[in-house]
Protein 1
Amino acid sequence: MAEALKLMLTGMSTVFFILIMVVVLGSLIIRLTNKLAPSPVTVTEVPSQTNSVIEPSKLAAIISAVEITTKGQGKVTSIEKLKN
């Protein structure tokens, strides 16, 4: 009976210790990520073209696609429709 109690306490304390480690390490990783993560990307306005009108939803889609593809390093300066 004493050995079963000792085995149970050892197992429960091991599980408790591992759960505490998970919480502490998770908290540490979250803090480091928030501190070292790049700042949010700001969307800059694209100069409007006078001869063609682009729908705002399409313009927003193009800008976000460029930002995602270039990981915030690219910038949309002009948009032209190609003629076949």
Note: The chain has a mean pLDDT of 85.
Protein 2
Amino acid sequence: MKKGNFCIDGKTCSIFEESLISYKFKITNREDPIYNLKSLKNKIEIKNMVNAHIEDGVALTKFLYWIKNIKINNLTEKKIERKLENFRKSRKNYLYPSFDTIAGSGPNGAIIHYRSDKFSNRKLRKNDLLLLDSGGQYKWGTTDVTRTVCFSNVSNKVKDIFTRVLKGHIAVAITDINKERNGHNIDKIARKSLNSIGLDYRHGTGHGVGAFLNVHEGPQGISNNNYVQLKEGMVLSNEPGFYKKNEFGIRIENLVFIKKVKSKLLFENLTMAPIDTDLINFKMLNKTEKNYLFKYHFDVYNNISPFLNKNEKKWLAKLI
């Protein structure tokens, strides 16, 4: 005879464990309630995530200034990974990477879950795009950010595609969450500009993020099959992209949190790092998108410029 009720997590409990439990108990729920509760960050957690992203933004911005202003001769993907890690290590509250860095140059950037090794590690070339996806665990929280960088004048075709990815990124950032409500609806908005010319990407637009926990955390997300209602305090990534096999990869990723202003739910950027304006076709941006980009870079400058040297400040200010 079965005695008592039992809750299991259907996402993580194995069939074997379930069979043992069901032998003596009645399984009444297949979703761990903690899973939902921990996705709602409190005010202290959000404050600490903001501070962690300022620390991370300083490191990443210093790195971006460095790589945009040096001769890239003999610079390999592995060297790029180590250099970025050194910039992060210079921040006193940095502990370790939140995941293995992806530094995909040229055709390697088109591999969505790329990891460089001794065989694939290629030299960065002047005409390459570099897709850099990385993050850190700080004493206060978790970061995850992707930037795509160029080192020479790129073709109008590449600029136009990058700009369409950016338009999708901005569309997510300014979404009316009260209206769209879940990641399924927002995912469609993110893809609209690319889809209008028959292009797309083979991954979700965003995932939930923990506060000094897993860099991928549910139940919330921005993807075609995620219908979880978005709520105040949730942290997600905003990362549309495009990948041309054997040629290049493009992705723009910020972390955002959901805040409530009166009765409205809005996304607020956590990530504080510049977007490469050399890749943007500004003629394709409307007034709202241009205003968003101006305000974003203005916020980045205000938050991290006190920690930059004179040349880094000057370079960053030009992006506003």
Note: The two ends are 70 Å apart (CA to CA).
